[in-house]
């Protein structure tokens, strides 16, 4: 019998219940996958609280990334076999021991990448890749600001941007996280509980500001993020861990220097199989080359997902966290 973390209604972590579900079956174009490791991400809390609406109603299984082994191949599927190690990073419903999964979402894990690393890297790593390579194409001439620099995406992005040769500024909330950010390649690290990050960015850049600000924090960093940009700079808001930005004004873009703003999401950047494979290929190559290391800092048993959510929302996690079925 298969067990999963299921919620019947949105709410606090207590709504996450460990219970049996029907065993999955591989339909047309699907695989049945037995999970070996499951990624924990802030987007999981958005679905849990109802900030992001369930596309299928309730009961709901949250989670978007995992690694595992193919147990069954459905009709019409080519390129996958029973026993293949696969991972995925954008398919709701990962908080379960076993699941059916559209084969179009699955990616084979290359040799040299273990399952826990794969589970920790797919959503966060593909997010870092589209942010740095597509949302704003980072070059050695780029100066960027990345909020939550010690988090899952931030840790990967810092290493990736360092490999490119960019000047990187990261914000964190503690001395411990500052050390993590430095270890992950950030040129400058700002503890926003000790310094005014806007003033410090101005100091670091000689008053010029950054070319791009990557912001997954939201409410607590707005409009400060805009004030950190050079004229014609880009504000990329890709998350909202502190809450939704509710007072955004187009007039502010003019006020702070004819700025550009975008609210990107991974789904758009990997909407076709071709784009998904290109993104993942770059990510796997960065990891296999050693230019990017995936710091799996904590693990929780899948049945303890509620505890993992409390740690994540309480900002008691760094790097990546995985759930083990």
From TrEMBL:
The keyword Membrane does not apply. GO terms for cellular component: cytosol. It holds the Pfam family ADH_zinc_N. The keyword Chloroplast does not apply. GO terms for molecular function: mRNA 3'-UTR AU-rich region binding; NADPH binding; quinone reductase (NADPH) activity. CDD domains: QOR2. Keywords: NADP, Oxidoreductase. Residues 11-323 form the Enoyl reductase (ER) domain. InterPro entries: ADH-like_C, ADH-like_N, ER, GroES-like_sf, NAD(P)-bd_dom_sf, QOR-like. SMART domains: PKS_ER (SM00829). PANTHER family: QUINONE OXIDOREDUCTASE PIG3-RELATED (PTHR48106), QUINONE OXIDOREDUCTASE-RELATED (PTHR48106:SF13). This is Quinone oxidoreductase. It comes from Acuticoccus sediminis.
């Amino acid at each position: 019998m298969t067990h999963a973390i299921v919620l019947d209604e949105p709410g606090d972590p207590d709504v996450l219940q460990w219970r049996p579900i029907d065993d999955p079956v591989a339909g047309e174009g699907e695989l049945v996958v037995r999970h070996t490791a499951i990624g924990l991400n802030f987007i999981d809390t958005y679905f849990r609280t109802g900030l992001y609406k369930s596309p299928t109603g309730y009961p709901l299984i949250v989670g978007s990334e995992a690694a595992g082994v193919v147990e069954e191949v459905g009709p019409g599927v080519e390129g996958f076999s029973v026993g293949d190690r696969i991972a995925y990073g954008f398919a709701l419903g990962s908080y379960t021991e076993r699941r059916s999964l559209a084969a179009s979402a699955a990616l084979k894990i290359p040799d040299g990448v273990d399952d826990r690393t794969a589970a920790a890297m797919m959503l966060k790593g593909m997010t870092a890749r589209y942010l740095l390579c597509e949302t704003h194409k980072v070059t050695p001439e780029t100066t960027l600001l990345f909020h939550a620099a010690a988090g899952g995406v931030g840790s990967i992005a810092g290493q990736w941007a360092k490999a490119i040769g960019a000047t990187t500024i990261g914000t964190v909330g503690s001395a411990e996280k500052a050390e993590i950010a430095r270890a992950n390649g950030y040129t400058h690290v700002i503890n926003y509980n000790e310094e005014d990050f806007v003033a410090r960015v101005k100091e670091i850049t000689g008053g010029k500001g950054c070319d791009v600000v990557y912001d997954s924090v939201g409410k607590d960093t707005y409009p400060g993020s805009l004030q950190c940009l050079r004229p014609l700079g880009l504000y990329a808001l890709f998350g909202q861990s502190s809450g939704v930005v509710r007072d955004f004004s187009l007039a502010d873009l003019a006020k702070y220097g004819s700025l550009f703003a975008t609210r990107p999401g991974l789904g758009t950047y990997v909407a076709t199989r071709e784009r998904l494979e290109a993104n993942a290929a770059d990510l796997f190559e960065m990891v296999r080359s050693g230019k990017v290391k995936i710091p799996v800092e904590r693990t929780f048993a899948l049945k303890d997902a509620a505890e993992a959510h409390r740690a994540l929302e309480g900002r008691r996690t760094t790097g990546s966290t995985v759930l083990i079925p």
